[in-house]
Amino acid sequence: MTRSRIFLEHLGDRTIDFFTAVYEAWQLTLDTIQALPQIWFYRRQVSEQIYVFLVKTLPIAIVISVFVGLGAMIQGQYQSSALIPRTYVINVIFKSTIIELCPIILSLVLAGKLGASLAAELGSMKISEQVEALETMSLDPVGFLVMPRVLAGVVMLPVITIFANLLAMFTVFFIASIATGWISPKEFVVGLHMNYRVFEFYFGNLIKPAFNGFFIALVGSYFGKRTHGGALGVGRASTNAVVTAAILIVFFDYYLARILL
Amino acid sequence: MIEVRNLTKHFNGMTVLKGINLDIKDNDTLVILGPSGQGKTVFIKSLVRLVEPDSGIVRYDGVDVLSMPKRKFIAFQKKIAFVFQDNALFDYLNVRDNLSLYLRMHSQLSEEEIFQEVLNAVQFVRLDRGVLDKFPEELSGGMMKRIAIARAMVQQPCYIFYDEPTMGLDEANVEMVVELIHKFKKRVCATAVIVTHDIHLMRAVSDRVVLLKEGQIEFVGSKEEITENALHTLYRTGVEDV
């Protein structure tokens, strides 16, 4: 067999695998939506996942938001010159933090933590026949495992992001106004209110995190559900979940901003 | 009654089930016997759609389950319990929650009533209540198998499927499983289908026996009708020693 033929066959296999994965992920999305009417039946699983999401993400959100705030503040101070009023600098820090920095850094870190743990959890359940056991107990694996996780992601990531944004801005305020006295509290508030648009708040705190939460939970569940090949397969599923979720997050970060802002 | 007609399944170009036809009567204990790699597990998993067959018909009391939408079949599965080869206990739940899950999801019983049912099931498999707070990883192989049977018991099924129930168990636990299969049948009156390579288990529990070889049925009949010759022929190419 010639090398070009081997290459083309390999390319063909990869292309088929890619489109199969896209189709299966789309099918899982539809199945998850179809499972939504059963939300009352699976209420215990939904509340468990919301609780787990909160417990797993809160400590990380605190650390990230504090340091994002500190970083943004240092960068803002460093980049500003005597020609730019400090209220403007605060305005830039505020908007870049709530619209971009906090949501995307938090989402990427949570894609690593939650995406990997979701894929590993569902993957080990799959290879030890626990997913099949659910079916034999007359429980829909999508309704029992996937829908609650996706719902928790969509609902809780915006909640966590709002909390993180508040904490990040409080950190900026604390450093800029109280600890260093770089700007007075009154000027700080003026900076926050400058050119303020409510939609930006919705975009950074609700819309974008909801999409990101959906991608993290769905991609983690998808790779977990299709795991095969023992412990090696579980490791592969976790890695794929993290990488794919991260790519989707940055991809839609750009397109959502492009479309909605 | 379960009717199986012309059931076929292929994996990666290999035919694993070659047009199987079989009737399983109500309250029968049917043992499907054969060495490893003959399609036994694929066959019983096809009966409960854990594996989707490529073609064929499976009817439970006249209801064709293969043509049902999957979601509808999952609802139908309340009638069916399955004891997995590796038990498939939920490792993030303790024994109590493993046994309670079905009742919490599908019954209107209070937590107290559910606990009573769980306790009955644990006593049924001859374990004490101390086991309820343990997680699957803290249990021995024999205990896990008994919990898996208790979980099936809680479901009160019309049909129960066992996949290699004695695999990897010592002699004492094998005897325990044999006793539990008998007790289960008396208590629940379910039709039982057991896949095994264990001839001792077949002799101890079966009403009827199917010998499966290379995805085809070689023999159907009572255990008394099986000749040593048939067993020898079946296992000659297998890894098991008759």
Tell me what you see in this structure:
The complex is a heterodimer of chains A (261) and B (242). With 261 residues, chain A is mainly alpha-helical. Chain A has 8 helices and no strands. In chain A, helix 2 packs antiparallel against helix 3 (86-127). Chain B has helices at 40-47, 70-76, 95-106, 111-124, 141-155, 171-188, 199-205, 228-236, and strands at 2-11, 14-24, 29-33, 55-60, 63-64, 80-83, 159-163, 191-196, 208-213, 216-221. In chain B, the strands form 2 sheets. A 6-stranded mixed beta sheet of chain B has the order 6-7-8-3-9-10, with helices on both faces. In chain B, strands 2-1-4-5 form a 4-stranded antiparallel beta sheet, covered by helices on one side. In chain B, helix 3 (95-106) crosses helix 4. The radius of gyration of chain B is 18 Å and the shape is globular. Chain B has a domain at 2-91 and 160-235: Rossmann fold, CATH 3.40.50.300. In chain B, a hairpin with a 2-residue loop joins strand 9 and strand 10 (216-221). Chain B is an alpha/beta fold and 242 residues long. The interface between A and B is medium-sized, with 17 and 28 residues.
CATH architectural type of the domain at 2-91 and 160-235 in chain B: 3-Layer(aba) Sandwich
Gross morphology of chain A: globular
Shape of chain B: globular
Q: Name the CATH superfamily assignment of the domain at 2-91 and 160-235 in chain B.
A: P-loop containing nucleotide triphosphate hydrolases
User: How many domains make up the 3D coordinates of chain A?
Assistant: 1
Oligomer: heterodimer
Strand content of chain B: 25-35%
In short:
Chain A is mainly alpha-helical and 261 residues long.
What is the topology?
The complex is a heterodimer of chains A (261) and B (242).
Chain A: H1 3-35, H2 43-79, H3 86-127, H4 130-136, H5 141-179, H6 185-193, H7 198-225, H8 230-260
Chain B: E1 2-11, E2 14-24, E3 29-33, H1 40-47, E4 55-60, E5 63-64, H2 70-76, E6 80-83, H3 95-106, H4 111-124, H5 141-155, E7 159-163, H6 171-188, E8 191-196, H7 199-205, E9 208-213, E10 216-221, H8 228-236
Parallel strand pairs in B: 3-8, 3-9, 6-7, 7-8
Antiparallel strand pairs in B: 1-2, 1-4, 4-5, 9-10
Helix pairs in contact in B: 3-4, 3-5, 4-5, 5-6
